[in-house]
Amino acid sequence: MIRQQQTLVLSPYAGLYDIVVPKDNMLRQINELVDFAFIYEELEEKYCLDNGRNAIDPIRMFKYLLLKAIFELSDVDIVERSKYDLSFKFFLGMAPEDSVIDPSSLTKFRKLRLIDMNLLDILIGQTVALAIEQGILKSTAIIVDATHTKARYNQKSPQEILQDRARKLRKVVYSMDESVKAKMPIKNVNNVLEDEITYCQKLVAFIEEESGIAQVPKIVEQLRLVADPDARVGHKSADSAFFGYKTHLALTEERLITAAVITTGEKNDGKQLRTLIEKSQAAGMQVKTVIGDTAYSEKDNLIYTKQNEIELVAKLNPLITQGARKKEDEFLFNKDAGMYVCPAGHMAIRKARQGKKGVSKNQQDTYFFDVEICKRCPIKENCYKEGAKSKTYSVIIKSDEHLEQKVFQETEYFKAKSKERYKIEAKNSELKHGHGYDVATSSGLLGMQLQGAMAIFAVNLKRILKLVD
């Protein structure tokens, strides 16, 4: 059952809070500003309301997670600090002498209560509604960008991670049935990531289909890790890669986040624009202008924003705005690396400009891929012709939408609005350096989405407090 916490703490020591938690304390201000009753409404179906022992108040559990995001502490550390930090106990709605929870309760709360709910959109929606209520959200423009978060195991290369997980899986399987050792797929012995992925796929398939022990709980867990499809290799530049996730953000000119989409690391930034606009509108934001970098000026976005009477302040780049190129949804441009990425996730190794100089409609950029990788690619049938000595992808510039955007980007209005982009860079830095968003705290996309929801809720609340003041 849900036991709603008391609004008034009945304790002979409650007066301590008036002494040690001042009026300008951030946690006291958040308590006074935010009505956390929405937590009951969102989690009501996750609890049994007519039998069983009383559960720990869900608002208190949620506030523990919020404290973790604000102060960048582990489960154990946040519970330990709540034993003696009276500002924490005040925020949690506890009496000074009350005992704290066991840290394991936070894990259960995340897995049992917060699963299968769109917490990210719910929390952003709550803060946007609060900002509108306080009269501090007046902008009709959003700034869009993506920030990278390294996977929890980022200290290892992607291949080392797969090797380590495969080794642990084999060890668990052998402990259950050593006779399967002779039937196991042959281990990969080279340093090619694609071959390691292929081996892991064969290993998982063998255990699930032939071993007969795939449903044993400790094997199921190891299988999940080896077969985890979430963390991916993304590129910050042509020479710099990361293993993890991307958070695509929409930010108002008041520096409030109005929408977020969390994806695996290889996803293209521009493809998320429509979702960010629609999520911002669903949260209560009126969107008339979108400000972004060259990743967002692809043809589909130009068409979508024009149809919806939205100004797209994103500078054209011939490498992105390719007009009527083929397989547009398959080969995606990575703005940080300045290269195209094929459907299998492999990046081009070089590019060359072709065509008559000074005549844009006859010019094209040709991107060259490593043909040796193409030969081993599991989806080469749709892309690579057997025996070919090279694999290229060409981009041609020809589009009326691009010509219109080229005129728009030369205006003083466009140039002035473009200068607002620094705000989202600062917000990305705040998330990473102030709230631990540079590294994932758990594995898997669901864990990343929960981490993102709490971190964004925290920074939005802090911003609202500052704007109100």
Task: Determine the fraction of residues in helical runs and give it as a percent range.
Answer: 40-55%
> How would you classify the quaternary structure?
single chain
What is the typical, i.e. mean, pLDDT? 84
Contiguous uncertain segments of 5+ residues: 320-325
DSSP, total strands: 11
Radius of gyration: 26 Å
User: Whole-Å distance between the termini?
Assistant: 39 Å
Please state roughly what percent of the residues sit in beta strands, choosing from under 5%, 5-15%, 15-25%, 25-35%, 35-45% or over 45%: 5-15%
Specify the structural class: alpha+beta
Main sheet properties: 6 strands, mixed
Q: Order of helices and strands, N to C?
A: HHHHHHHHEHHHEEEHEHEEEEEHEHHHH
Please work out how many helical segments DSSP would assign.
18
Structure commentary:
There is one protein chain. With 469 residues, the protein is α+β, with helices and mostly antiparallel strands. Among the domains are: 16-117, no CATH class; 158-230, no CATH class; 322-397, no CATH class. The protein has 18 helices and 11 strands. The strands form 3 sheets. Strands 1, 2, 3, 4, 5 and 6 form a 6-stranded mixed beta sheet that branches. Strands 9-10-11 form a 3-stranded antiparallel beta sheet. A hairpin with a 5-residue loop joins strand 2 (232-235) and strand 3 (241-252). The two termini are 39 Å apart. The model is unreliable at 320-325 (pLDDT under 50).
